[in-house]
Amino acid sequence: MDCVFSLTKFERMTIINLLYKTKGDSMSTIKDVALLANVSVTTVSRVLNRRGYISEEVRRKVEEAMEQLDYYPNQIARSLQKSQSYIIGLIVLDSNNAFFSELTKYIELFANEKNYKILLCNSNNQPKKEESYINMLKQNQVDGIIMCSHSIDIEAYTKINLPVISFDRVISNQIPYVASNNHQGGVVATEHLIGQGCKCLLHICGSMDIDVLPNKRTEGFIEVCKSNDIHFKVIESGHHNLIFDKTLMFIQESILPIIKEFDGVFCSSDLLAYALYTSVTSIGIKVPEELKIIGFDNDSFIRMLREPKLTTIAQPIKSISKLLTNKLISLIENRDSAIDDDIVDIKLIKGDTT
Amino acid sequence: MDCVFSLTKFERMTIINLLYKTKGDSMSTIKDVALLANVSVTTVSRVLNRRGYISEEVRRKVEEAMEQLDYYPNQIARSLQKSQSYIIGLIVLDSNNAFFSELTKYIELFANEKNYKILLCNSNNQPKKEESYINMLKQNQVDGIIMCSHSIDIEAYTKINLPVISFDRVISNQIPYVASNNHQGGVVATEHLIGQGCKCLLHICGSMDIDVLPNKRTEGFIEVCKSNDIHFKVIESGHHNLIFDKTLMFIQESILPIIKEFDGVFCSSDLLAYALYTSVTSIGIKVPEELKIIGFDNDSFIRMLREPKLTTIAQPIKSISKLLTNKLISLIENRDSAIDDDIVDIKLIKGDTT
Question: Among A12, B125, B137, B251, who pairs with B89 as Cys (CB 3.0-4.6 Å)?
Fold first, then answer.
């Protein structure tokens, strides 16, 4: 697929020599840096590539020399040399959504610690946009992709031919995934509502069209309801549950007319839970006295919110981000190694809405 | 600076030919695509580069042929050919903050429309991190930088030697900026508080250490207070006003002890205003009866928030993002053209806190 990888060593060296060709006096070379810092070219190269042991003093000397000479190695030439761009593609549904915004922030932070950069792509849950991003990322020779958007069929991902790691979806044996223990989340949320005295439960989830791991929240909910002989109902909110205004409209049109049949609701996101809370309290239903509400995510919006303190199932967003980033980098740097999937623990956060 | 630019045409062609060299039957070339789509190589190239007029039918034929042949032009080779990477570096303070998260989302959206990608960098307002990002972006041959973080001295930016556009800061004549009319925002907010009957005003701003355009909000506040003979005070919240918990701590330690001296507060961000609102209502102060509060930004957090509906000065985040992106792309594609600065209008959003 990647024609750079198919060049012979001689051809590569030809390119690199051409790229590193100096332009009169106006550009510094790695040799100038080595000369000024009084170290070998190999040492400068080690500092640049963050490989091998380098003492703090030597690193400082080299960095000072680079700064003095205004030397910046041409990353395009370096990526040809190493067949690596040190760029990771990150595809999220919507980087302005509180959950994905925090995931993006931490992935960027952990990638930066290992000298990788993030190319950010918002799919807005549109299959066409997601596909065109995947093609774009291949063209730009990213080293790998973190997929946090799942609007297209599995086949498209298996054809990617680059290291890929997935959040919240099982794609294939070759593509490791990271997810919260969604099933356990559904179980804990439902048991909590029953423990607080609920007899009639509603579960509002996203769309079940695509087989993603958050669907297991619904499975956990149904299992617990059945084993406790609880009357229950499941309603899908569809794909638009990332945008608050649309979520609010959905709640008002589809949930308010039937809400009085229930005394407890498990929402599959905090956004749904907050939209439900504001809608029911505005028509005089008392939370938690008449209706108990539990969300999912413990996202940065809900953590900032003071009224109400929402009861929710917390996903460990920072740990998820770290696992996604570090596992992808392992795949990139050591392509043959087997990378396990990871299922991380969730936690009940008791607020004032149950 | 950029050694790729110093190559002769012959040297460039050598590299491109090497890069485009096919690897047996396993890789398709642009010629294969042209043959299959029954068009010229020039036409395929036009479709790839989105240049010149191409009918929908021809575009479709070419795209289908590309898909059939699994053809992805090597972007590294294309960037050598065109001396462009089609990557824009975006440095923000914190991509999880509601304001910057929305700015990032829209910049990515508008860049994508013009075939550019976003390399996302979070400075976390740390000068060292911001500097290392600027160096990293130079190494990675981005085509330009959108600077939305301003923790370092102006000199560092003027040395960048790439197209740069700045949000909220005047850097130099060579670097255009986009900003809201911050002065007008300060004036409108203060006049609104006085119009609602306030006699003693407090203004909580960020840090005045660095000369950025939002400082003009404070100038507007002071001017209106003076011309209306209003008793006033200005307090700086420092650099930590992007993180809610720290903002809350600052409000409780530095503002609550003196809050009873005032009947109106103009906060320079919605985050400050929300932290103030929750802190004062928790000690029994009635808003807006005893204390009126106005914020700044109308960020996505505040727009979602139902309790309270905060009175605030709205910055047009979508327009700002579009201006920043389109102006930078103009600078990149037409380096000699003069790009004007842009100051966009703010708007008072009347909520329940005044």
Answer: B137
